[in-house]
Amino acid sequence: MASDRDILPGWTTRVKPSHYNISLYDIEFGGNFTYQGTATIDVDIKNSEQFSNIVLNAYQLTLHSAELKTGDSTLASKEITYDVKRQRATLDFGDKIQYSGKATLTVKFEGTINNVMAGFYRSKYKPKGDVPASVAKDDEFHYMFSTQFESCDARRGFPCFDEPNLKATFDVDLEIPKDQVALSNMPEKETKESKRPGFKIVTFDRTPIMSTYLLAWAIGDFEYVEEFTKRKYNGKSIPVRVYTTRGLKDQGRFALENCHQVVDYFSEVFQIDYPLPKVDLLAVHEFSHGAMENWGLITYRTTAVLFDEKTSADSYRNRVAYVVAHELAHQWFGNLVTMDWWSELWLNEGFATWVGWKAIDHLYPDWNVWGQFVTESVQTAFQFDALRFSHPIEVPVYDGLEVDQIFDHISYLKGSSVIRMLSAHLGEKVFLQGVADYLKAHQYSNATTNDLWSALSKASGQDVNSFMDFWIRKIGFPVVTVAEEPGQISLRQQRFLLSGDAKPEEDETVWWVPLGLYTGQSASAASLHKTTALGKKEDTIRDIDETFYQINKNLTGFYRTNYPPSRLSKLGEARHHLTVEDKIGLVGDAFANSVAGYGSTAGLLALVERFQDESEYLVWSQILTSMGSVRSIFSGTGEISDGLRAYSIKLITPAVEKVGWEFKEGESYLVGQLRAALILSAGLTGHQATVEEAQRRFDLYISGKDKDAIHPSLRKAVFSIAIKNGGESAFKAVQNDYLNSTTIDGKEICLQSLGRVQSPELAQEFLSFIFSDKVAMQDKHSGTIALANNAKVRIEVWNYIRDNWDNAIHPTLSGNLVVLERFLRFGLNKFSDVTVADDIAKFFSDKDTRGYNKGLDVIDDTIRSHAKYKERDEKVVKEWLKANGYIK
């Protein structure tokens, strides 16, 4: 057994699965939602040593019996015992068995279709149209059934050897009512009558060899829209479908149109044809993540796959397109070639994130996808990796049950940012050739990070491992501090910590830093410098034209740059000659350096003040995020808070007045997003004209006089502004809109808006509403994040968690620790008060925090770093605001 991981005992020398036949029957469509099952597993017994038991994974299942057929002999289990903590079952056959070769293990079991979005589970929804009588329902909701097996929840659905490198093929058959639809990874093979009256048995074709976490099935009142790939696969086009519950299928057409194009695109890019005979996308009404890449049956949260041209906010267009592409990338990168163990999760998620954005850039070149990637993915990755309690991209995972906590911004966003950096260095064509070679070499198998580096090294002729190893296996990233001398600059790299206090032992890594250094007589005339990378702690770069120079062009490298204050000011003056990515990096770095103490908030405020005339949405997105964070951290400081509000109103006024309220025919997607962002920010900051217009439109909409008064993309802005300024009546009106919303994105938008309440009483009322059965478990974090971002009432989130942990929070969310960890991390990470951090730490000190302990570390580190920043910069911020007329 490998010593660095807790895996099933003995399989490396004794028992390894090769094929499963999964049969589910006697499913209870209501009541207790139980089902019966038989798992028939073909195994290879590789060693002639005597054994008496077999250990496999099973969780929240009852195993009724087990039989092992070895050659002509069949043994029945004498006893079945469970290790609940390790989610294992031991099948004890009593007698010593001495056998080597192929065998068949048959386990009969019982499970429950749960409601915690893990394993085989049920989702509640309110149907559109007539629903067959057989569909499960209660007084208020109907239910669909589906699976979520990643990371380690296949064992909740059926007994199995639930580890990513124990690949096997699968046959699935499901007994379902005749008037419902069953789906699985592969096409339907046959349907036959069941002995159970009114039921049929649906059998599916055999899957390719794959990991247990990629198996999937679903049962419900489904309908679909269909397209076909333009490319031919084995001589014919592949059917592509989006499945929904009845009445929603037409909202799947946008995803469908993207899907078949992306399948063809990736087949070309990866130089391997899509390997299955169909692609199904299924909208699931309750979903813990955004989507899941089950091979051939990809499941999605409804807001990540459905889009209504008439009623959906346009931001969801971007989301659907990207999430569809991300999950399709996994069909190759993750499904065809799977990481050997969970420690290398980034191989799946980092790459799928990068190439997902690449596909969207291919389909929608006018969306400035890489600018979006820099302001969203890269900056978010920086934020989390700047914490002392971050983790390396490739992180040791001893127990598979720990892995859910690394489905995080490091694996996805830092992973993809580092891939973007490497692709830029090698050249995209060379990089993609290396990736294609890697996929071909390891298809239908498992691979490691080193396997990827080997393929890229061979394709590029460079030793990729030598300069990428630290980026993958070491925690954190550097800040490169620049010092100027005539004709040259000195560079020094050190680990960037948000708290700004890296100890010597935390700052030993020397990263390979691609400089992306441009210099010249002006920003428009600058060219690439001959020095391409920094490979030591300190170095001096000569032949620099001091008129203009810039490091990390387009923010391709994953590091912060800390310029001298005078250079930061000059780059601000030259902003109109910089790319969108450059401007995002400039603002993002200036903010982060202020918090960490490498730079100053005064320098940030002076830089951002120049951007009043900015017209690009993605740059404004970064400005609003950075300034929103500064205002949040200093929100309890009286004069400073008022001064920053005045600063923000002056900053945003020209832009919000210029962009206006009306969406024009033929206007670009990005202009629409700019309008939505500016109106939301201006209204919440207190720009009077915006507040008045938002309230006017809100009144027309809520009164029913004009339901078109609010453009779908402005619902979040108008609702939020109305609730902030309208108090209880506006709160009740939006809450009612939530309860009656029939649009796909309506409930999310209402929850995000309701978090803008201004009184502790309304905040507590909202939190009680969140933890009622009116809000699905998948959405309970949405409103909480809005409350956490609301300085006026964010303390109420902590008060509610502390006071209701045992009777509401833990009982509701602990069935799915992914959901609990996310709720806590995003609900509590906005404070900047050490006493709150102490209070949180004390509260959880005697709790069993397995499964969300890393989230608590992130909360603690973030709060303390913000508190340190506030204390350090309070005086200088106040002085700057006074000197510049924002504090009278």
Give the SSE map.
Blueprint lengths: L14 E11 L8 E12 L5 E7 L4 E9 L2 E4 L2 E5 L4 E10 L3 E12 L6 E7 L16 E7 L5 H4 L11 E9 L3 E4 L3 E6 L5 E6 L12 E4 L1 E7 L10 E7 L7 H17 L9 E6 L6 E2 L4 E5 L13 H16 L6 E3 L5 H19 L5 H17 L23 H18 L1 H15 L2 E3 L1 H12 L3 H10 L4 E8 L2 E8 L17 E2 L3 E3 L6 E2 L4 E2 L3 E5 L5 E3 L9 E3 L2 H9 L6 H17 L4 H9 L7 H17 L5 H21 L9 H17 L2 H16 L11 H26 L5 H9 L5 H11 L9 H9 L6 H19 L3 H12 L5 H11 L8 H31 L5
Parallel strand pairs: 1-11, 17-18, 18-20, 21-22, 23-31
Antiparallel strand pairs: 1-2, 2-8, 3-7, 4-5, 4-8, 6-7, 9-10, 10-15, 11-14, 12-15, 13-14, 16-17, 19-20, 23-24, 24-29, 25-28, 26-27, 26-30
Helix pairs in contact: 2-3, 3-4, 4-6, 5-6, 5-11, 5-13, 6-7, 7-8, 10-12, 11-12, 11-13, 13-15, 14-15, 14-24, 15-16, 15-17, 16-17, 17-18, 18-20, 19-20, 20-22, 21-22, 22-24, 23-24
